[in-house]
């Protein structure tokens, strides 16, 4: 059985998320028990609790964005829960509009698009996901948009000389994952808005 590079990356992502989610959950449970017993309180416990919550939210998000994606459906409740947890204490606020369960592969594309938008809105803003008649739109709006045109050209299949670093891997993965499910990605940009369609 041969495994292409996109599938191999997804398998690695799934494995890492799977192995990390249990110990982080255990730490969170331990913190809850400490909080209930009254043995520990104050800003120290709050800082640890916030950090564990942030790590848990990111792993759940990464599991969808970078993990393996079959043909199963992801429900609205799960998508909203993941994004709401990602918003806690963050400058960027996410919203999920689709009401019906969505194909996990398409949700994966939406999450990768959200991560691309995150890099363009370093000072915060809002990112919204819409789906109508099988067509997806992910919109990022902020007072200040910071777009590297060369990097963003990569998303819609254009030539890019920007080196893909670990923090920019979503720009390389998004078009490859889209290609696997016969989608093309288009990007539109204005002064305060970026729209990704697929």
From TrEMBL:
Domain of life: Bacteria
Molecular functions per Gene Ontology: transferase activity
Record InterPro entries: ChpT_C, HATPase_C_sf
Location of the Histidine phosphotransferase ChpT C-terminal domain: 78-190
UniProt entry keywords in alphabetical sequence: Transferase
Identification of the protein by name: Histidine phosphotransferase
Organism: Parasedimentitalea maritima
């Amino acid at each position: 059985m041969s495994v292409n590079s996109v599938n191999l990356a997804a398998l690695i992502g799934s494995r890492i998320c799977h192995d990390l989610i249990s110990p982080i959950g255990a730490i969170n449970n331990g913190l809850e028990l400490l909080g209930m017993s009254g043995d520990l309180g104050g800003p120290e416990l709050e800082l640890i609790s916030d950090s564990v919550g942030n790590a848990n939210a990111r792993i759940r998000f990464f599991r969808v964005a970078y993990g393996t994606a079959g043909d199963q459906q992801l429900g609205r409740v799960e998508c909203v829960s993941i994004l709401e947890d990602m918003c806690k204490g963050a400058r960027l606020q996410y919203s999920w509009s689709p009401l019906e369960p969505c194909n996990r592969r398409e949700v994966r594309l939406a999450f990768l698009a959200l991560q691309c938008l995150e890099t363009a809105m370093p000072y915060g803003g809002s990112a919204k996901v819409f789906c109508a008649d099988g067509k997806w739109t992910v919109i990022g709006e902020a007072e200040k948009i910071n777009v590297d045109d060369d990097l963003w050209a990569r998303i819609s299949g254009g030539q890019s000389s920007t080196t893909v670093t670990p923090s920019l891997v979503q720009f390389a993965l998004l078009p490859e994952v889209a290609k696997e499910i016969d989608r093309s990605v288009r990007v539109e940009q204005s002064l305060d808005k970026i729209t990704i369609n697929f």
